[in-house]
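Follow-up to my earlier ticket, as requested here are the two runs.
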Amino acid sequence: MAHPTLLPPTAPAPASPADTTGIFRHFHTPHLVLGHPITGRQVVFGLLLVFCLTPWASPPVALALGLLLAQTLGNPFARQTKMATAKLLQYSVVGLGFGMNAHAAVQAGREGILFTVASIFGTLVLGYFAGRWLGLGRHVTHLISCGTAICGGSAIAAVGPVIKAKDEEMSVALGTVFVLNAIALFAFPPIGHALAMTQQQFGLWCAIAIHDTSSVVGAAKVYGDQALQVATTIKLARALWIIPVSIGTALLFKQKGVKIKVPYFIFGFIVAMLLNTYVPALQPLGPIAVKLAKIGLTVTLFFIGAGLSAATLRTVGAKPYLLGVLLWGVISGVSLYVILHTI
C-alpha cells in the first residue's frame, strides 16, 4: 500500500494559540537539513507517523496522537493528509476484504439488514424534527442526520453537493460527526466489555451506532477479529444506502441535474472477499493484505485526528453538537438494547 509523500506545505498553516508562546514557537522555526528547510513539528509529525506503522500503535492510540498534535503543534501537512485520508481508508477497506469469507459475510449482512433499514430511516426522521426544534438550518440538519444515519463524512460528502450546501454548512456537519467518531472509538470497546457483548453483537453495534467507517473498523479491530469482520461487512452494506438517500434528497430538496456520488471502493471490497473465498491460490496472500490494511487504517485515524484542529472544533457551535449527540445517543442506546435482547 502506498503511503502519501510528505512535502512541505505551500503555505504555513494558521497559528494556534500555543504556537505564539513558549516552547511551541521553536517547533515552527525552519532549520536547514541537507539543504532543505525542516521545522520541529514536521519532525514530530514524521516520528508519530512512523510509530503508527509499528505493531504498538492501535487505532485509538493513533487517533489520540493525531488529536494531541492538532491541539498543540498543529498539522504541518494538513493539505497532504486531507488528500490522502479518503484514499488510504478506501485502500484499507479493500485490503480487509482479503481476510473475509463471502459466506460468513452474507450471513452477517442478512442479520443486519433490518437493523440497517430501521436505523437509517428512524435517524433521518428524528433528525428532521430535532433540527426544527433546535432551530437549525435545513441543510445542516439534513447533513448531520445523513452522517449519523449512514456513514459519517462519506455520507455528508455525497449529500452536500446534492443539496448545494455551503462550505460552512459542510464544515459544521463534518466537524460534528468527526468529534463524535473520536469519542466512539475510545468509548465503545470498554462498554462492550463491560456488558460482556459477544463478537457478533459488538460488531453489529459498531456498524449501526458509529458514524464513519474508519472509527467502526478501528473500534471493532480493538474488540476482536470476528467483530471486525461483522462490523466491516454491515457498515459497507450500510454505506451503499448513500445512493438511494442521495436520490431521495434530490427529490426532497427539489434539486435537478445533480450528480450522485457512488462509493465505488465498496465493490473493491466485495471483489477482494470473493477472491479470498473462491481462489485458493490467493489465500496465502490474504494475511499480508489484511496486515497492511490494518496499518493503513491506523495511519488513517492518525491523519483524521491531526485534522481536528481547535479552530475546526470551535466553528461547529453548540446546537449542531447537541443535534449530533441527540441522534447518536438515540441510535446507540436503542440499537444496543435491541441487539442485547435479540442477538
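Run two:
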Amino acid sequence: MASPFTIEEIYPDDGDDAPRLPRRQAGSSPQDLAVTLLADYTLRHRARIPSAALVALLAESGVSTAGARAAISRLARRGVLEGSREGRRSSYRISRAAAANLSGGGRWILAATTDVAAWDGCWTIVAFSLPQDRSTQRRALRGQLRWLGYAPLYDGLWISPYELSAQGRAQLARFTLGAVTVFRGPQAALDVIGQRAPIDAWDIEAIGRHYEEFLRRWTPLVPSLRSGGVDGAAAVRARTEVMDTFRRFPTLDPRLPLDLLPAGWLRQPARELFEAVYDGLAEPAARHVRSVVARFADGAQPDIQAHTTADLLAGVRDAEPAPERDGASATVESCAT
C-alpha cells in the first residue's frame, strides 16, 4: 500500500543539523527498508551492525547488493547513520539524532492510533499566502501542515479539528515569515446548497480503502504467526513491511473525530491487527537478525533486540523528544474560551 507522503513528513527535519530521512517512493525504497530494519532491532542500544550483515538482510527483501550499499552510503551522508571501521570491516548504527526522532515517532504512531480524545466541535484554520516565486517555501509549509495533521479545505486554507500547539506554531513560523493567520472556532451553518463540510478536506473514502487493504493484507497471517509458522527471513520481511505500512496511518487519518466518520471506522481494528502482527513476530524476527549479524561479527549480539508496541508507547530509549504532533494528546475546552 503506497502512501502519498514522504518519510520527512512522518519524521520531519528539526533544524539544519537534523538527520534527513529518506523520501517516500512508490513502495519501499532500500533506504526505507534500511531505516526500518535498524530501528526495529537496534534502536534501544544503538547497536552497530556490520555493513555486510545489513546488505544481507536487505537482500532478503529483494534489494540488490549495489542498491543496499548505495542506500547505506546515502543514509550516512544524510546523518541518519554513523559509520565506523575496524580493519577491513565497516559497521553502522543509527545516529543519536535519528534515534531520538525515531523513538519519538514510534511512540506517536501508537498513541495516535490508540488514544481517544473527545472533540469540542471546533476547527483550527491556517490561512497563508505565498508568492508564486516562493514555491519551495510553499511546498515545505504544506508538508509541515500535513505532518501536523492538517488538510487543505481550499488552496491556502488548511484545517484540523485540534488546537495548534505552541511547538506547532513555532514550526510554522519558520516557513511563513509572517504570511500566515491561525484562528479557531466552530463551523457556521449556511442555508445554501453545496456547502463544503470541513471534514471533506480529507478523502474519507480513500482512507477507508487504505484501512480495508491493510486488514485484507495482514489478517490471513495471524493464525500462522500464532502457531509459530512464520520464522526466519519471512518473519523479518513481514514485520518490516507491516511497520512500513502502518506508520503512515496517523498522517492519513490524524485522529479525525469519530463522530464525523462513517460508522464502523476501521482505525481501531487496524491498530489491533498491527499489534498482533508486529508483536507476534518480534522474537522470531530478532532471532533471525542476530543469526545474520553473527555471520559477519565476532561473538553474540545481545544488543540486537526487537521491541513491542508496548515498548514503543513507553519510549524505546531515553532520547530527546521528537517534534510534537498536534492532536496527539488534545484536551477538550470550549473553543469560545
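The only thing I checked on run two: Residues 115 and 328 are 8 Å apart (CA to CA). Let me know what else you need.
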